[in-house]
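lol forgot to send this yesterday, sorry. struct tokens for the thing we talked abt
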């Protein structure tokens, strides 16, 4: 990369040749902290692989997920890369890379609750993460679920971990959340059979990398890197590692 492009490529930290990626470090299996405190996950590995191609170091910074666009605007971070769904509302604030993974919003309940469909949530309490795509979908398509739940208003959580604690305790009866998180989290619980994925009625969504609209060179390099990693089999390898199968 020429010096001029490198200066454009690195939005906030030109001297140390690194990009700063903001993430919610509880979002398994995309980006999360292991018991030893180290970050791991599909997005962590994918981002490192992309920037390795350009000799650029990656600094992952934990942020308040509900403030991610503000952190980007204030140049505290260069990228939002952590299961970040493309929505019309977000497109008004940020530029997106090409899509790199398909995701769904699903309803997770307890098996013993007998909640098997969205309509079974009538009068029940629903949890969602603040600032999540699930929260956006709930407002965008109220007839699908929001109009049925207690008070037509969900309980908001800082993390999905907190929502699962309340689901297990019976304080809420369902969580609207990302499928990739739900399936991984449930599979690693002591009793996976105690949970039910009750619905996938919401339309599919795409994960992409978010950045400032002025960062055109950065966007093109990320897109080129993602394309190359898919072509050489790296993407398939990482998907098998984190999802147990190759996704679309």
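and heres what i got for the seq, position by position
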């Amino acid at each position: 990369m020429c010096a001029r492009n490198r200066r454009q490529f690195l939005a906030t930290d030109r001297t140390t040749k690194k990009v700063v990626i903001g993430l919610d470090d509880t979002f398994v299996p995309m980006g999360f902290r292991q018991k030893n405190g180290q970050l791991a996950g599909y997005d962590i590995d994918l981002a490192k692989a992309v920037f390795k191609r350009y000799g650029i170091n990656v600094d992952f910074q934990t942020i308040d997920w509900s403030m991610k666009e503000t952190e980007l605007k204030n140049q505290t971070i260069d990228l939002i890369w952590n299961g970040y769904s493309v929505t019309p509302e977000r497109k008004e604030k940020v530029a997106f890379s090409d899509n790199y993974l398909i995701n769904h919003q699903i309803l997770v309940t307890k098996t013993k609750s007998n909640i098997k469909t969205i309509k079974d949530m009538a009068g029940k309490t629903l949890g969602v993460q603040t600032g999540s795509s699930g929260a956006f979908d709930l407002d965008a398509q109220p007839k699908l679920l929001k109009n049925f739940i207690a008070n037509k208003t969900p309980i908001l959580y800082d993390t999905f971990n907190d929502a699962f604690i309340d689901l297990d305790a019976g304080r809420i009866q369902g969580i609207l959340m990302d499928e990739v998180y739900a399936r991984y989290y449930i599979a690693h619980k002591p009793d996976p059979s105690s949970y039910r994925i009750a619905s996938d009625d919401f339309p599919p969504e795409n994960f992409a990398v978010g950045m400032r609209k002025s960062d055109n060179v950065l966007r093109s390099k990320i897109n080129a890197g993602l394309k190359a990693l898919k072509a050489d089999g790296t993407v398939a390898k990482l998907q098998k590692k984190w999802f147990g199968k190759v996704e679309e």
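The first strand starts at residue 18 and ends at 23. anyway ping me if u want another try
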